[in-house]
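User: I'm writing a short methods note and want a consistent example. For Neurotransmitter-gated ion-channel ligand-binding domain-containing protein, I'll paste the sequence; you return only the structure tokens, no commentary, since I'll be parsing the reply automatically.
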Amino acid sequence: MLNSLLLILCSLQLTTCISQNELNELSRKFKYYHAAVRPAAPDNFVSDRNGTFFNIPVEMHLMATRIRNLYLEVIIVMTWIDERLRLRELKDRFPMPSEYLPWHPSLVFSPTVTSKHTTLAPTTGTMNSYSTIKTTVECQTNAWKYPFESFTCTLSVVPEGDETLTVTQFHDLRSDTQKLLTNVFLGDYPSCSLEFIFRSEWPRALLSSFLPSILIVSSVFFAQWKRRKIQILVSLAAMIGILIMLCSQRPYTATTLMDLWLCSNFIHSVFLVLIDLTLPARRVRYTLMVHVDEEKKQANPVKIMTTCGFFG
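Assistant:
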């Protein structure tokens, strides 16, 4: 909660206007400032066995995620020191106006950034860049597993120059429900990325496709104990219904598990129709117990008369 409050305060601070004194100091500094020149403060560089690199610490704050074409709300904070913008006369941090653009690393965001702001701490020359992403991310999946597929989405930040991005902090500020629906993983160094994984809404497909198809095939199966005309009508209606379901529920162009399931139901219905048309018609004669009793009564007098004639 403390992190989210700090982010809200930062966003409110970015929308405020700077004072005339701050504007005068910036105009004085930018007379000899060139935004194309990278800062040379020693705190910006890190060294290892591969060499010395300009390092930019990155903080990622995940605010919200919503599935069904994953929607993201992320705030990315980058920090570096520009010793040329140290203003000893000023104390408070303030946002940089649009007419005074400082040096900023050339970055490629995937997806693209919705808004970007930069603030300056004048006593130390510390620059903070706030990049906000509020967009829908394209995800990858195995289409043949539909409706039981899982989606993988990636948010990445890649520098175009020789700078390195190091994720120092990651804060997941989502609600518990969003955390259960979507898993997030931080990319390994040196990549600056977030990977999101979530499963499709298969209960919806269970109610809209699997359950109706099972009921349709069951009705065809139980119709075999009825008359030939009823068998054929039910089977033809089932075939038409399954074909409509097969043509209407196709989110992918590739063959999926749902297509195989509906095709197997369709083949089953066609097989039963062929059996009904091939085998001869069955004539079922229904006999009531009342008719049987009447036939017995009519047969009893005949037996009595023949018995009397025998003894006479």
